[in-house]
Specification:
Layout (H helix, E strand, L loop, with lengths): L2 E3 L5 E4 L2 E3 L4 H11 L5 E3 H9 L7 H18 L6 E4 L2 E4 L7 H12 L6 H13 L12 H27 L3 H14 L4 H13 L3 H19 L5 H12 L24 H12 L5 E5 L6 H11 L8 E5 L12 H11 L11 H13 L4 E7 L2 H4 L10 E6 L4 H6 L3 E4 L5 H12 L1 H6 L1 H11 L3 H14 L3 H9 L4 H4 L9 H10 L3 H10 L7 E2 H8 L3 H13 L4 E4 L2 E3 L2 H14 L2 H26 L25 H24 L3 H18 L2 H18 L2 H17 L3 H17 L3 H17 L3 H17 L3 H17 L3 H18 L2 H17 L3 H18 L2 H17 L3 H18 L4 H9 L6
Parallel strand pairs: 7-10, 7-11, 8-9, 9-10
Antiparallel strand pairs: 1-2, 2-3, 4-6, 5-6, 12-14, 13-14
């Protein structure tokens, strides 16, 4: 595994050798991914980080080129396959411990764990400081780089303070004076640095220098900020003046609960909190998320790490917004507790709620206090408790997003999601010990998957593992038991039951939102659009969006993208229990039927727009269910956008329908997806869907549907080189089509035979089958089939070197496709014509043909066939001596194939590597 360094120049090492990372823009892309190592970073976020808020139009295309090179860098660093593309995001799947900035955070976190001796803290923090190599992200520029650099520099200074305190605890002031003295000059407003430097100077017998440093810092604060030093620094100053032994002094309340034992991960969220706090205008931060996701743990842990920045104290209150047993705590009750903590005697409390709130805000006006408002129910409960003056900060946690607070109180939002797999594993390590976790790696993976990254669920499982001493495999099996996962996540007390904790959020919903939440569990996943939920529930779109908003604000659903919603696995299990116990079987069946009709009828309409010349489906669709609302797609572009967004859902729905006995839907959905999957070059998904569809067709007893499935499966076997399997499937299809007298089906099968023999370079046999297909299409009066078969005959004649005959066949095919208006067919023919012209040495004519093919494929959104024509275009450009143009065409093909995750990318990489300019 490589060694990735960001705390200085961006560098990568493997086996002690430095890996070339490339030019600054490429280093910025790598840094933008490493900053969130192990997490998916949306393409839009990457573009913002690399180019800022006003990126050039070519940013997305340029980003893909940079990512191709980053992939090569990571491969050379010993992490092949680490750059993972998922939907519209990229994830650099490397161990965060191999990235210095994450290693620094991990070492600092370990140093803060209970039970660490001063010597152990010193050793850990020394390791962390040693990772610093100068200015972070040195040599790079841009808004994101500048902001990130500031956050990391501040984090380094905070680590240095913690290290210095640990060193002083073991009576070692010399190194502290040297290191902190340099840092104090860089951070003249960092009072904790100034304080610990003064303490080190006194410990070294140099109190006069400590007093001089205080005077210099005080002058700087007055000149720059117009303020005196804070209480902590003043207290240290008084100690030095009195000639007492140095030590940390803290004034004001210290109400924070104990830090969370075993806290780990959340590096990016902690950095965001640091960044939000560094904004002088920030008055409040709202940490929101679903029940059990660790909002309080994050808030309390961060509050402990920054307590020194709030020298006038830390206030904490549990507002009990979702408490099952106690009433919600109103702001008047909360503020009375705060006034008591701030030292206001009971007999001096002003009468009345408003007067007490006013006194509270007055007390905070000239202080720097951290106010942690935990478990808030709504904005009205929180708003009166916010500090009014700069310097203090309110940190709010809530299951609701508190949008009103964000809009009217200038609060900053910090949504909290589930743990990554790496963070989840580290949580188990910290609670169970590394030896026990390492002893059962497979069981640990199963536990992490079953708990779905929810810290509460992982903590409950870890507690049961400690108490019972059962093998982790036994606990994993219990969690995997269908329908009993939530029972396994039950500690016996109310706050330790996942089901109970979820119920507090569910009970706070309106009745209509509760119904949507329950029925959402019937959706096959992985995400659902608002339109699909409207069909599922039978509600009108406007009302559905309003209820989805209620569920999102309550953190019971997540709006993954605008208008797209996902449910956490454990919340889905909870909702499934609820719908089984609340909604009748007839209601659930009707909801599923509406949803399936929504997807099937929209997918079929989308396929009709993508390929209007395609023959009608062999297994006709039933009418749409009442209250189902399939989406209305205006044109081919709209169809492509819809299929791009929905195809993971449609594939999941194919699997779901097969498992639940909806066999007609299984076959029809697969048929409706085929054109889109072909144009994406997604052979694996296409093959799996058609295998499922074949079994459904057999259960239906429909021979036409079975035959179509066999030809589609054979096509995939051919592409994979499984020729014997392909021949067997095609023969089954041909026998079925012949038995029912389906000439067009027979012709399709012969075209697939031609494709099979062509892959084996038996071009004579391929031409023979293509001609048989042509004759059958003519007998069936199928003009689209004739045009396709003519192109196929021409292509295989070209493979035989009979280029003039090939051109004649292809020109006939093109004329027929043009008359039919079949643009997809035209794109294929132009590519065939280009190949024949290229082989005849007519490179300019070939390039012109390929340009035609590319324009058509691009208009159709046929990305895979774009790559084929781009590859052929590069061949023709190279043959014409235009190396740069060949490289450009192949690079574009490689970017698309890489984004599609297609195996053909390797062949294009070889072509690029062999170019003269690449040697």
């Amino acid at each position: 595994m490589g060694d990735f360094r960001l705390l200085g120049p961006v560098e990568v090492y493997h086996g002690g050798a430095r890996v070339d990372v490339g030019h600054p823009r490429q280093r910025t892309v790598l840094a933008a991914l490493l900053a969130d190592a192990g997490r998916a970073v949306p393409v839009g976020t990457l573009i913002d980080r690399v180019w800022g808020q006003e990126p050039p139009r070519s940013a997305r295309q340029s980003l893909h080129a940079h990512l191709t090179r980053v992939r090569q860098v990571v491969q050379r660093a010993g992490a092949p396959g680490a750059l993972v593309h998922t939907s519209d995001s990229y994830r650099l799947d490397v161990d965060p411990a191999t990235v210095d900035v994450h290693r620094l955070a991990e070492l600092t976190g370990r140093s803060e764990q209970p039970g660490q001796t001063a010597e152990q803290r010193v050793a850990l923090l020394r390791q962390g400081l040693a990772l610093w190599r100068g200015e972070p992200l040195a040599g790079l520029g841009g808004e994101w780089v500048t902001q990130t650099r500031q956050i990391w520099r501040r984090r380094y200074a905070d680590t240095a303070v913690a290290w210095a305190r640990a060193e002083l605890a073991v009576a070692n002031p010399g190194d502290v004076i040297r290191v902190v003295g340099d840092l104090a000059a860089q951070f003249p407003l960092h009072e904790a640095l100034a304080a610990v430097l003064m303490q080190a100077l006194v410990a070294a017998g140099r109190p006069a220098e400590a007093l001089a440093h205080y005077a210099a810092v005080r002058r700087y604060l007055i000149d720059e900020l117009g303020t005196e030093p804070g209480a902590d620094l003043q207290a240290v100053h008084r100690v030095v003046l009195r000639g007492e032994a140095p030590g940390g002094v803290r004034s004001g309340p210290a109400q924070l609960p104990a830090d969370i034992a075993g806290f780990c991960g959340r590096t990016a969220h902690l950095a965001q909190l640091d960044a939000l706090h560094d904004r002088e205008s920030a008055r409040a931060v709202v940490v929101s998320g679903m029940a059990g996701v660790g909002k309080t743990a994050l808030a309390v842990h961060w509050a402990h790490t920054v307590a020194g920045r709030f020298p006038d104290g830390q206030l904490y209150v549990n507002l009990r917004g979702f408490d099952a047993e106690e009433a919600v705590l109103g702001p008047a009750d909360a503020v009375r507790g705060f006034l008591d903590a701030l030292g206001v005697p009971a007999d001096q409390l002003p009468p009345g709620r408003d007067a007490q709130l006013g006194r509270y805000r007055t007390l905070l006006a000239d202080r720097r206090v951290l106010v942690v408002l935990d478990n808030a129910r709504d904005a009205e409960q929180v708003r009166p408790l916010l500090p009014a003056a700069p310097g203090s900060l309110a940190l709010v946690t809530s299951r609701h997003q508190l949008t009103g607070l964000l809009a009217t109180a200038d609060a900053q939002a910090l949504p909290l999601d589930i743990l990554t797999d790496g963070e989840a594993r580290e949580l188990l390590v910290r609670r169970l010990g590394r030896e026990r976790v390492d002893a059962e790696p497979a069981a640990v993976e199963e536990i992490i998957a079953a708990c779905a990254g929810l810290p509460l669920a992982l903590a409950i499982t870890a507690a049961r593992a400690r108490q019972s001493r059962f093998p982790l495999a036994a606990l994993a099996a219990e969690l995997a038991e269908e329908g009993h996962r939530l029972d396994a996540l039950d500690t016996g007390d109310v706050a330790g039951r996942v089901r109970s904790v979820f119920s507090w959020s569910y009970d706070a919903l309106s009745g209509a939102a509760q119904r949507v939440f329950r029925l959402f569990s019937l959706h096959p996943g992985p995400s659902a659009s608002a339109a699909a939920v409207a069909s599922l529930t039978g509600l009108r779109p406007a009302g559905t969006r309003r209820l989805l908003g209620e569920l999102t604000r309550a953190s019971l659903l997540t709006e993954q993208l605008p208008g797209r919603y996902v449910s956490h696995d454990l919340l889905r299990a909870y909702a499934a229990d609820l719908t089984t116990g609340t909604d009748s079987a007839a209601e659930r069946d009707a909801a599923v039927r509406r949803l399936l009709d929504h997807y099937l009828h929209t997918a079929y309409a989308a396929d009709r727009l993508l390929d209007p010349a395609r023959g009608a489906i062999e297994l006709p669709l039933a009418p749409v269910a009442a209250d189902a609302r399939p989406e209305q797609l205006a044109d081919r572009q709209a169809a492509t956008r819809w299929l791009t967004a929905e195809h993971p859902v449609l594939l999941a729905t194919v699997k779901y329908t097969a498992e639940t006995g909806h066999d007609a839907y299984t076959w029809q959905l697969t048929w409706s997806l085929s054109t889109y999957l072909d144009r994406r070059g997604d052979g694996a998904a296409r093959a799996a869907a058609w295998q499922t569809a074949l079994r459904a067709a057999e259960r239906l007893g429909d021979r036409t549907a079975q035959a179509r499935a066999h030809t589609s499966i054979a096509h995939t076997h051919t592409l994979r080189g499984q020729y014997a399997d392909s021949i067997a499937a095609l023969q089954q299809a041909l026998d079925l089509y012949t038995a029912i007298g389906h000439r067009t089906g027979q012709a399709h099968t012969h075209r697939n035979f031609a494709h099979l023999w062509g892959h084996q370079r038996r071009y004579d046999a391929a031409v023979d089958h293509a001609r048989q297909a042509l004759a059958l299409y003519r007998a069936a009066a199928d003009e689209r089939g004739q045009a396709d078969a003519l192109n196929q005959v021409g292509w295989y004649l070209a493979m035989l070197g009979r280029y003039d005959e090939a051109l004649e066949c292809c020109r006939h095919s093109l004329a027929l496709h043009e008359r039919l208006g079949n643009r997809a067919g035209q794109a294929h023919v132009w590519d065939s014509l280009g190949y024949a012209q290229h082989r005849l040495g007519r490179h300019d004519e070939a390039i012109e043909c390929y340009d035609h093919a590319l324009r058509l494929a691009g208009d159709l959104g046929d990305r895979y066939n774009q790559t084929q024509s781009l590859t052929h275009l590069g061949d023709a450009q190279l043959a014409a001596g235009r190396v740069a143009r060949a490289e450009r065409a192949w690079s574009e093909a490689l970017d698309i194939l890489t984004e599609l995750g297609h195996a053909d990318a390797e062949e294009v990489r070889r072509k690029l590597a062999a170019l003269p300019s690449a040697r």
